[in-house]
TrEMBL record:
<keyword id="KW-0863">Zinc-finger</keyword>
<dbReference type="InterPro" id="IPR017907">
    <property type="entry name" value="Znf_RING_CS"/>
</dbReference>
<dbReference type="InterPro" id="IPR000315">
    <property type="entry name" value="Znf_B-box"/>
</dbReference>
<dbReference type="InterPro" id="IPR001841">
    <property type="entry name" value="Znf_RING"/>
</dbReference>
<keyword id="KW-1133">Transmembrane helix</keyword>
<keyword id="KW-0479">Metal-binding</keyword>
<dbReference type="GO" id="GO:0008270">
    <property type="term" value="F:zinc ion binding"/>
</dbReference>
<protein>
    <submittedName>
        <fullName>E3 ubiquitin-protein ligase TRIM56</fullName>
    </submittedName>
</protein>
<keyword id="KW-0812">Transmembrane</keyword>
<feature type="transmembrane region" description="Helical">
    <location>
        <begin position="399"/>
        <end position="419"/>
    </location>
</feature>
<feature type="domain" description="B box-type">
    <location>
        <begin position="156"/>
        <end position="197"/>
    </location>
</feature>
<dbReference type="InterPro" id="IPR013083">
    <property type="entry name" value="Znf_RING/FYVE/PHD"/>
</dbReference>
<dbReference type="InterPro" id="IPR047153">
    <property type="entry name" value="TRIM45/56/19-like"/>
</dbReference>
<keyword id="KW-0862">Zinc</keyword>
<dbReference type="Pfam" id="PF13445">
    <property type="entry name" value="zf-RING_UBOX"/>
</dbReference>
<keyword id="KW-0472">Membrane</keyword>
<feature type="transmembrane region" description="Helical">
    <location>
        <begin position="431"/>
        <end position="451"/>
    </location>
</feature>
Length: 452
């Protein structure tokens, strides 16, 4: 018998889970309403579901099969009741579910709401704080009403008197603006203006409705200001971007202009053609040096028995080729440019910037290389040497004769002037001046000759 009861109980529990469970609150149906798709939902769950899932309140999707459902003209309450489920509940004695609030954890208080986002069952006193603060930085919380019983639903507050432990707060003292219990009313607030808590709550309800209108007006103003701020921000960003583009374009243009001026200076510096000429001259000098090295090597390897007319003729031809090479190299003059660049400066003059790139100077320098006398053959230049010695001897003889003659003239002049000084007293002054001048010239000539 006990086994039969256990089996029957299991069947009833499976029946509750499969047929009598609301797809939204996951609890047993409370006033189930049947949808056109033949699925059933609690009336309160359906009201909350339509309010949160439908922007227009006229069309929503079935929470079980996701098919579109149109709300009747009279509203959600016009969906027909599911009498079949009601009959089953009556037959098996279905009892309502009373959940404990997951926030305050009071076992005597019914959880009447469920937050889908946080997966919490919340009582009617904790739901307000949860709505205002727990989802302040998120989208609107998805909260549904899941009230399944009437335990604690008629309570207006869960607070108790702080002075008298366990006493419920049923009165409101307008004089002190606090909630009081009946004991406080009879003791400390006897002469104060008081009213029942229900009347105070109804008055607060009207005040909250007025506050709703005020907050709505503020919301409209805030939305307007937010639109203006967004437009201003967009305008500022656009103007800033346009200005940045203009600045960058101007900077690129100035950079190109400065680069062009720099390239012009560089082209002026590198336009000098002295480097290729020097490279050509260096190549000729290298060839001349090789010829000299070859001659040195030839002369160093000569022996006493190698002297002959053929050797002399060969060496004369070598000397001739070396002399011809030297003629093209000796006294070679090159003109090159020595560039000098003085960087400019950037000066500020109010809002303007005065920029001077710099100055370029090309100083032309002239330099001569290898100032050697032309080479002459040993035997070919012998007669020139003899003629040069004879000319030198002849020049020396002429020079000595000229000096002797000039000396004789000066001596005769001095003697003549001395005689005039003695014999012509009338011209003494002029004669003395002439004598002094001739004497001075004679002494200077003698000193110059001795020094030479």
């Amino acid at each position: 018998m006990e086994c039969d009861k256990s089996v029957e109980g299991d069947k009833i529990e499976r029946l509750r889970e499969r047929i009598l469970q609301c797809p939204i609150c996951m609890d047993e149906f409370q006033d189930p309403r049947i949808l056109p798709c033949h699925h059933s939902v609690c009336l309160n769950c359906l009201l909350d579901y339509v309010r949160h899932s439908s922007s227009s309140g006229r069309l929503f999707r079935c929470p079980q099969c996701r098919s579109d459902v149109c709300v009747p003209r009279g509203g959600v309450k016009d969906f027909p009741p599911n009498f079949y489920i009601n009959c089953i509940q009556d037959e098996i004695g279905a009892r309502p579910y009373f959940g404990v609030c997951d926030v305050c954890r009071r076992d005597w208080l019914v959880s009447q709401y469920r937050c889908i986002n946080c997966d919490l069952d919340i009582c009617k006193f904790c739901i307000h704080d949860h709505r205002l603060f727990s989802h302040a930085n998120q989208e609107e919380a998805n909260i549904m009403r899941i009230e399944t019983g009437n335990i604690g639903t008629m309570l207006s507050s869960q607070r108790t008197c702080s002075t008298h432990e366990g006493e419920a707060l049923h009165m409101f003292c307008a004089t002190c603006d606090i909630l009081v219990c009946m004991t406080c009313l009879c003791e400390d607030h006897k002469q104060h203006s008081t009213q029942p808590l229900g009347r105070k709550l109804r008055s607060a309800q009207h005040e909250l409705q007025t506050e709703l209108d005020t907050v709505g007006v503020e919301l409209v103003q805030v939305d307007k200001v937010m639109g203006e701020v967004t437009d201003l921000r967009t305008s500022i960003l656009q103007e800033r971007e346009a200005c940045v583009r203009a600045v960058r374009a101007q900077a690129r243009a100035l950079t190109l202009e400065i680069d062009a001026q720099g390239e012009e200076f560089i082209s002026n510096i590198t336009a000098d053609g002295s480097v290729p000429a020097l490279e050509n001259y260096s190549s000729q000098l290298s060839n001349y040096r090789d010829q000299l090295q070859r001659g040195i090597h030839f002369l160093e390897n000569l022996e006493e028995g190698d002297i002959s007319l053929e050797l002399i003729d060969t060496y004369q031809r070598y000397q001739k080729s070396v002399s011809e090479c030297q003629k093209g190299l000796a006294g070679k003059t090159f003109t090159h440019q020595q560039p000098s660049f003085s960087p400019g400066q950037l000066r500020k003059a109010g809002q303007y910037r005065l920029f001077h790139f710099g100055g370029l100077k090309n100083i032309r320098n002239k330099i001569a290389f290898l100032p050697l006398p032309p080479r002459k053959g040993r035997w070919g230049g012998m007669f020139d040497i003899i003629r040069g010695e004879q000319a030198r001897v002849a020049f020396t003889g002429c020079w000595r004769a000229l000096v002797a003659m000039m000396t004789l003239v000066m001596v005769v002049t001095l003697i003549d002037l001395s005689l005039k000084l003695c014999t012509s007293p009338g011209t003494f002054t002029q004669t003395l001046a002439g004598f002094t001048f001739v004497l001075y010239v004679s002494v200077a000539a003698v000193c110059a000759y001795i020094k030479a």
